[in-house]
Design brief:
Layout lengths: L1 E2 L10 E2 L5 E6 L2 E6 L9 H18 L3 H19 L5 H14 L19 E5 L7 E6 L8 E7 L16 E2 L8 E3 L6 E4 L11 E10 L8 E6 L11 H9 L20
Antiparallel strand pairs: 1-4, 2-3, 3-4, 5-6, 6-10, 7-8, 7-9, 7-11, 11-12
Helix pairs in contact: 1-3, 2-3
Length: about 270
């Protein structure tokens, strides 16, 4: 229902008390509609992320002046080059604590000693064996890989190949936790990731992100691209027990895998 306003009231918006009526503004006009409570499915990932942020906020309030000054210096020195914008000390602190907790590590109260890692150069898709398996090669410039891990995020399959994935659709490839992080491999070695949260069929378009993280939990700039899924029938799938074994290994040790030939995909 359209609502007319007159001078001096140019527009109104918001919920009318405890009623079921909400006023919304669209352009220069106001409309009334029925109030719909916001959805809050309380998924395991949502609960984990909220817990991570709450823990970071509580930890920040306990820092000493020296520690806060250290985080301020770290943010000033690295945030623009690593993230394309200047982060305040609290936001830098929270970013690091998020990734540390996702990795199953304790909070880091003193500022990191390592600089944020560089952005990956490219993601190359390799043919997968199943709909919930993904195979990537990550090209990067890091020679000493022991101090780094990588995390992948994907989107659900798009309704058509003409639909580009949106930033809000990305989620950690398995779930928010250590199972979505992998030892940083050489740029020629593939990641074979089974048990992904989203199944994507052959010929469907989806998005993928890769971000390198230091051993201290400092994330680098993300690389985002998208592919049309390729499933090659006859490939040996990565069995769940193999995937579980991969997660249980020390993430900060290099895992050798047999490289594939003729990489197929695109970079960005």
């Amino acid at each position: 229902m359209k609502i007319e306003t007159s001078f001096p009231i140019a527009a109104v918006s918001g919920r009318l008390g405890d009623s079921d009526v909400v006023i919304v503004k669209r352009g220069n006009k106001c409309y009334a509609r029925k109030y719909s409570p916001p959805k809050n499915p309380q998924t395991a990932d949502q609960v984990a992320v909220r817990r991570f942020l709450a823990n970071a906020t509580k930890a920040w309030s306990s820092l000493t002046v020296r520690q806060r000054e250290g985080w301020a210096d770290y943010a000033k020195r690295y945030s623009v080059s690593a993230f394309g914008q200047e982060l305040n000390p609290y936001n830098m602190f929270s970013k690091v604590q998020y990734y540390r907790q996702a990795l199953g590590m304790a909070l880091l109260l003193d500022p990191p000693t390592l600089a944020p890692p560089p952005r990956p150069a490219a993601i190359i898709q390799r043919p997968a064996a199943t709909t919930d398996e993904f195979r990537f090669v990550l090209q990067h410039s890091i020679a000493k890989r022991d101090d780094y891990v990588v995390t992948f995020e994907i989107t659900p399959a798009m309704p058509s190949t003409g639909r580009k994935p949106r930033s809000i659709e990305f989620r950690m490839i398995r779930h928010v936790g250590a199972a979505s992080f992998f030892a940083l491999l050489a740029p020629t070695h593939p990641y074979i990731i089974s048990g992904a949260r989203f199944e994507v069929n052959h010929g469907q378009r989806y998005g993928v992100r890769a971000r390198i993280v230091t051993a201290e939990g400092v994330p680098g700039e993300v690389l985002e691209t998208d592919f049309v899924k390729v499933i090659q029938w006859g490939l040996r799938p990565n069995r769940p027990d193999e995937a579980d074994a991969e997660v249980e290994t020390d993430l900060f040790s290099v895992q050798a895998e047999t490289p594939c030939d003729s990489p197929e995909g695109k970079d960005s």
